Every structure is written in C-alpha cells, then in structure tokens.
Amino acid sequence: MAAEMQAALWRGAGDLKVERVPMPSPGPGEVRLKVKVCGICGSDLHEFREGPFLIPSRPHPLTGRSGGPLIPGHEFTAEVDTLGPGVVGWQPGDRVTVNCLLYCGQCVHCRQGHYNMCLKLGTVAFASDGAFAQYLVVPAYTLHGLPVEVSDDMGALVEPLAVAVRVVKRSRLRLGQSAVVVGAGPIGLLVLQVALAAGASRVLVVEPMAARREVASRLGASAVIDPTAEDAGKAVAALTDNQRADVAFDCVGSQASFDTALKCTGRRAVICVAGLALKPISVPFLRLWGHEKEITFSTGYEDEFPAAIALLADGRVKVQELISDRIALGEIVEKGYRPLMEEPDRHLKVLVYPE
Ligand SMILES: [Zn+2]
Ligand SMILES: [Zn+2]
Fold first, then answer.
1. What is the value of pTM for the model shown?
2. Of the ligands numbered here, which is closest to the C-alpha atom of 116?
3. Which ligand has the nearest atom to the CA of 41?
4. Quick check: helix, strand or coil at residue 121?
5. What is the tens place of the pLDDT at every residue in 297-334?
6. 40, 51, 159, 231: least surrounded by Cβ within 10 Å?
7. How far is the CA of 156 from the centre of ligand 1 (A)?
8. Which ligand is nearest to the CA of 46?
9. Do 158 and 308 meet the contact criterion of CB atoms below 8 Å apart?
10. Does residue 304 belong to any structural domain of this protein?
11. Ligand 2 (single-atom ion) residues, CB below 5 Å
C-alpha cells in the first residue's frame, strides 16, 4: 500500500476536513518538502467562506487543477525531503520557504521578470496542493533557503512579508515621507515595519480593533488612530501639521478603507491598494484629479523573497508579536479558521503544525 499522510482538504465553501491522503511524489524538476509549520492567511479564509476565489474554476494551464479537493496553505517553512529527477542545488534537510508563484517562464511578462503578471499565472496551494499537510510537492524553482537566524516560525511569515515588501515598493515611498497604514492585520503590521525600514519619517496606523492598535504601537507606529472613535482624516491632519500623509497603504480593500486612505493623504499623495477588494469600489475622480493623487495596486510579489528573508534575519522586521496561536493540523478549523473569522480581535496569525 502506498504511503499516506495527513492533510486538510478543501472541497468547496465551508468544507475543510483533515483526512488521510496518498503521499505525493516529485516529478521532474519538482521537490517533495516535509512541512514544519504553515500560517493561515486571510485568503485562506476567503476560500473557506465563499470560494473558489483564487482557486481556479477551470483546469489550470500549468497544473491542470481546478476546484477541490485541494490542500490549502501557502505561508510555510519546510525541509527538503526528496528531489525529483533533474533537480540540482538542494539537499534533503535544507530548510526552505516557497515563493508561491507558478509561472510559465516564457510569456512576455515572465521574460521581463514580472512573474506575477504571467499569462498562465497560478499559485501554490490554489492551483496545486499546499502545506496544510505533512508533505507537499512544488517546482524546485519556487524554493528559497532560510538562514539560521530565521526560525521555523519566522519562516512562515516570509511569504506575507514578501507581499508587504512589494506593497511598499509599489507605493514608491521615499526617505523622509510620511505614511498611513489602513488596517493592522498581519499584512498591515508588516507594511508598517517595512515602511519604517524604507525610511518613512513616520507611519500612522488606522485600525478599529484595540488589540491590533496595541501591536502596531509596539512595532513602531508613530501614532494609532481608532476610526470608530474619531475622524481618521482629521486625526492624521492634526498629527502632520495639516499636510496629511504622502503615502497611504490600504491593507483592507473595502470602500470604507479606501475612503479612509483617501482622506488621510495630502496633495500629490500615492494610495497603494494591497487588500483584496471583492466588491467594486467607487472613486471620487474630482478629488484625485484636483490633488493629483495616484492610486496604485500591489498584487502578490515578483521576487521580494530575498529582501523579506534579509529583513527578518537581521531583526528589522519582527514577527513574534504577530503570532497569536499555535495549533495542530487536526484543529485547523475549530482553533484556526473559525476563531480568525469570528474573533479577529483576539487572533492575528495562527500557525499550524502538521505533527
Ligand atoms: Zn497569504
Ligand atoms: Zn509567463
């Protein structure tokens, strides 16, 4: 009988169960990884609540996969277990994380290094099985080695940190500029730290949940603002000599968060939208035009992994405060997904251990 492993299987909205499944084997150019730890992401909750969203609904051109059953989990640390035919440069036991982009390498965007724009773009754990399992198989080109300074738990935050690094890059934030982060979830709290590392003069954080505002303060926010208690735009104006911010990061992706980002910024500001907006958002063109404001978007990452790993390794970005819970794979729904959806004020990043 073929070897089996434990894995969480998504079969559709509201359906995620831990089961025994056959252990995957690596094909040519692929590597089998033994998972050490994997974080639950907001996008995992989207798929659980109302998916498929990023999970392809037609067979994916690179993987052939669509819908369920699918193993989610894309923010992880693992150990190289078995190399498929033709893989060089890695050894069993190497500690790694994975850049989740699956790309063709041949289209015009791939040739320019814009892998997140690949015409056949897919994502590990959406168009192929992910890391809420004991093992997974990925193409060898996705691997990034982790230095000893980056612990297994820290390694699970490299992927969201790569997202945050790209968000700050896309905003074109310059040394000495002021910034506002709207939404202090895991991505917002990482964007806060990256913006400081990039030389922002001050970073203000707008967040309705008190517990998340406290974490933002401890991680270096110059001030935190509760948008349910005061007008965020006026609060930012008072803290910036009426200039308001040069850059705003919308780390939520809703009409309310976009409106907040808009009123927290001053003339010629850039608003970088990082959050996943599931509904259309209306934009007051006249206000943007009059103040020559720009809206830009950041989706995933290209190759921000080496930068993210360096920021973690030397301590410029701290992630211990973001980790609110550590649970076993068997508890993923009851102690992971459900608390994150139902009590977001008490949970931030939940790490799942397969054994
Ligand atoms: Zn994620
Ligand atoms: Zn491509």
1. 0.97
2. 2
3. 1
4. coil
5. 999 999 999 999 999 999 999 999 999 999 999 999 99
6. 231
7. 10
8. 1
9. yes
10. no
11. 103-104, 107, 110, 118
> Is residue 26 within a helix (H) or strand (E), and if so which, with residue range?
none
Residue after which a domain boundary falls, among 267, 297, 327: 297
Distance 88 CA to ligand 1 centre (A): 28
What separation in Å is there between the alpha carbon of 67 and the centre of ligand 1?
Answer: 18
- Tokens 């926010």 — which residue? 221
Give the type of residue at 348.
L
Q: Do residues 153 and 21 share a domain? A: yes
pLDDT band (50, 70, 90) for residue 1:
low
Task: For residue 207, tell me if it sits in a domain.
Answer: yes
How many Cβ atoms are within 10 Å of 346's Cβ, its own excluded?
12
* Ligand closest in space to the Cα of 118: 2
- Per the DSSP assignment, residues forming a β-bridge with 224 are 205
Q: Report which of 147, 118, 128 is spatially closest to residue 300, judged by C-alpha positions.
A: 118
pLDDT tens digits, 154-201: 999 999 999 999 999 999 999 999 999 999 999 999 999 999 999 999
HSE of 49, CA atoms in CB hemisphere, 13 A: 12
Q: What is the largest CA-CA distance in the chain?
A: 71
Q: Which domain holds residue 38?
A: 4-157+319-353
Work out the percent of the chain whose per-residue pLDDT is above 70: 100
